[in-house]
């Protein structure tokens, strides 16, 4: 049997990597061996798709081979979709305990977690993007704080925050699962 091709997931985020590995473990015939590199890739301003594509182009050029990157946004409807791809800085400044204060003056607490994977087959290839969204509400933090804003994202229809779910439960309905599922399908059909 031919050796599987390598696919590099360029991310500096160990929690993203763990979830992606957990989800892909359930696909034994995934046609790549996934490795990881934490490269410094620029994150431009723009839509989540612009950000994801720019990260992937830069990573593919640096590594000259097939890569995936991922960008995660948290969008509040009361703020017209902000902070969106800029959530990392908001979380960094406010901390998980104060993130919910962003919507303190609003009745509308609707939040959408958006995960955008981008895949580049080579340094010259145009990135292909796969987007997954999970709807919910921004709440005061509840649950085990394993990952960023997980304790503040109460997922619609569950009454639980991501941080109140075990990893199996989160990985069946998360924004990341939904995007990765499409990427996995695409790559499996290409192989
Ligand atoms: O509670 C969470 N549950 C999640 O499922 C999740 N996914 C991402 N994040 C956080 O949202 C920001 C995205 O920024 P981001 O996409 O630029 O990520 P990053 O800079 O950490 O890694 P990368 O860009 O090297 O891949 C960062 O603060 C991430 O920690 C999450 N928090
Ligand atoms: Mg980043």
TrEMBL record:
GO terms for biological process: deoxyribonucleoside triphosphate catabolic process; nucleotide metabolic process. Its EC number is 3.6.1.66. Its cofactor is Mg(2+); Mn(2+). InterPro entries: ITPase (IPR027502), ITPase-like_fam (IPR029001), RdgB/HAM1 (IPR002637). Binds 1 divalent metal cation per subunit; can use either Mg(2+) or Mn(2+). It holds the Pfam family Ham1p_like. Its main location: cytoplasm. It catalyses: XTP + H2O = XMP + diphosphate + H(+); ITP + H2O = IMP + diphosphate + H(+); dITP + H2O = dIMP + diphosphate + H(+); N(6)-hydroxy-dATP + H2O = N(6)-hydroxy-dAMP + diphosphate + H(+). ITP binds at residues 11-16, 55, 71-72, 147-150, 170, 175-176. It comes from the Eukaryota. The keyword Magnesium applies. One of its GO terms (molecular function) is dITP diphosphatase activity. GO terms for cellular component: cytoplasm; nucleus. Mg(2+) binds at residues 43, 71. CDD domains: HAM1 (cd00515). Keywords: Cytoplasm, Hydrolase, Magnesium, Manganese, Metal-binding, Nucleotide metabolism, Nucleotide-binding, Nucleus. It is found in: Cytoplasm; Nucleus. Belongs to the HAM1 NTPase family. Homodimer. Pyrophosphatase that hydrolyzes the non-canonical purine nucleotides inosine triphosphate (ITP), deoxyinosine triphosphate (dITP) as well as 2'-deoxy-N-6-hydroxylaminopurine triphosphate (dHAPTP) and xanthosine 5'-triphosphate (XTP) to their respective monophosphate derivatives. The enzyme does not distinguish between the deoxy- and ribose forms. Probably excludes non-canonical purines from RNA and DNA precursor pools, thus preventing their incorporation into RNA and DNA and avoiding chromosomal lesions. This is Inosine triphosphate pyrophosphatase. It comes from Jaminaea rosea.
């Amino acid at each position: 049997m031919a050796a599987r091709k390598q696919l590099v997931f360029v991310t500096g985020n160990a929690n993203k990597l763990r979830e992606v590995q957990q989800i892909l473990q359930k696909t034994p015939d995934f046609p790549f061996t996934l490795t990881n590199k934490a490269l410094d890739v620029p994150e431009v301003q723009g839509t989540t798709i612009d950000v994801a594509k720019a990260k992937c182009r830069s990573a593919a050029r640096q590594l000259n081979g097939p890569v995936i990157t991922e960008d995660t946004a948290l969008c509040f409807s009361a703020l017209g979709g902000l902070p969106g791809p800029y959530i990392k800085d908001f979380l960094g400044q406010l901390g998980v305990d104060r993130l919910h204060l962003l919507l303190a003056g609003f009745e509308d607490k609707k939040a959408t977690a958006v995960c955008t994977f981008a895949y580049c087959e080579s340094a010259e290839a145009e990135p292909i993007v796969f987007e997954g969204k999970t709807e919910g509400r921004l709440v005061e933090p509840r649950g085990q704080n394993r990952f960023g804003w997980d304790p503040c994202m109460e997922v619609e229809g569950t009454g639980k925050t991501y941080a109140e779910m075990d990893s199996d439960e989160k990985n069946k309905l998360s924004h990341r699962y939904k995007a990765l599922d499409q990427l996995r399908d695409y790559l499996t059909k290409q192989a």
